[in-house]
Amino acid sequence: MKFSGSARRVELKNNQGRKIVGLIDLPKNQGRSPVVVICHGFTGYKEEIHLKSLAQTLAKNGIAAMRFDFTNERGESDGTIEDINFSQELADLKSVIDFISYQGFIDPARIGLAGHSMGGQVALTYGPTDPRIKVLADLAGVAYRGAQDTELEKKLRGRADHFQKNGFLFIWGYKIKFDFYTDLLKHDTLSQVKKISIPTIIVHGRTDRIVPLKHSQTVYEILREPKRLVVIDGMPHTWRQPIHYKKVNPLVAEWFKKYL
After folding, report:
1. At the N or C end, where does the chain have fewer CB atoms within 10 A?
2. Pick from 64, 34, 63, 69: which is nearest to 48 by CA?
3. What is the pLDDT of residues 171-201, one digit of tens each?
């Protein structure tokens, strides 16, 4: 399976008037299409192969897909990564959904949401707040605030004194402000998960060392039906390799085709 098609590039403004850049993969069918908005993870960006391959698989299944760069991340959207902020990512997502719902080629009654890693946490947190979201996909998402077992949390806590004293920390080569951590702790994702009443699929790699599998297992236990948890043997935190995206993408596309 090849993923070399072109996507439509779009720009919009968030609630602060800052630029958000996105890519829309459209199906070949005419008329208004259902759409899935895809959220990247911490220090991610819209062109990552696992997100691109998912978007194109959705399009091949008759579902439009919009992947975008959060502000204050690595991609084309405004801001620098040292100002990354979870609350702002929630606001960015609302701006994206507002934008896509008004496009003439989209059916605004059929909007789905997918997120990977911290993007999964964004999706789980935001999903129950917006009645326009009809279906969810949580892809190796972080489940609970202050989780001490994620790779990111270990780095934050391991140098907590330095982080708080200096107001910043270098994580994976990126300068991150302490405000990111204090803001993140304000959000209780599991409390939001309890409010989710729409079909939700969860996919997680069994060998994920960034976000442990138990995050997805916890979310699954809390969710109401219809729900599904799929654990992919041998898959790490992302599904970049063909052996993995050939498993993950059809599963996710099938879920959205069924419920969206």
Report:
1. N
2. 69
3. 777 888 888 888 988 999 999 999 999 999 9
